[in-house]
Amino acid sequence: QAILAQVDCVLVPGHIFVADRPAMVDSEKAAQRELQRLRKLPENQVCPNCLKEDRIGFKGVCMVFKTFICNDCKSAHQSFSHRTKSVDMSVWKMEEVKVLDERNGGGNRVALQHWLACVPEGERPNKD
Predict the structure, then answer these.
(1) What is the rounded distance in angstroms from the CA atom of residue 103 to the CA atom of residue 83?
(2) Rounded to whole angstroms, how far apart are CA atoms 66 and 41?
């Protein structure tokens, strides 16, 4: 059951559109806080695909690989039909956020260790 937090009205000549938005429940707020904490960890501020750095943390997540990724790499993952989510624009459940934690096999450091374990050093992605 949704709790109405606010009502937005969009005025178009001759029409009025009203959009009801449910309030964020406590569990969603907790999930969002934990997601923000994880994205700001130093190991998650380097895209595991292209090694681009973001001091604030990336706003894209590849759910298949449980990684925080830059916008360019998010688009590439989407082109392969990998499920991606936005940190800010998506609704997150705590179960989804927990899988991104390194303790549960998620995060960029774990992904790099797992997926690049057998790749020779000279063939790994680099910043250039």
Answers:
(1) 21
(2) 14
CB 77 within 8 A of CB 66: no
d(CA 88, CA 36): 9
Q: How is residue 126 written in tokens?
A: 């680099």
How many CB atoms are closer than 10 A to CB 125? 13
CA dist., res. 5 & res. 22, Å (int): 6
Of the CA atoms within 13 Å of residue 31, those in its CB half-sphere come to: 18
Place of tokens 């994205």: 39
Measured CA to CA, the distance from residue 39 to residue 45 in angstroms comes to 7
What tens-digit pLDDT sequence spans the chain (128 residues)? 444 444 454 555 665 555 555 666 888 999 999 999 999 999 999 999 999 999 999 999 999 999 999 999 999 999 999 999 999 999 999 999 999 999 999 999 999 999 888 888 888 887 76
Comparing CA positions, the residue from 56, 86, 60 lying closest to residue 74 is: 60
Give the integer Cα–Cα distance in Å for 32 and 30: 5
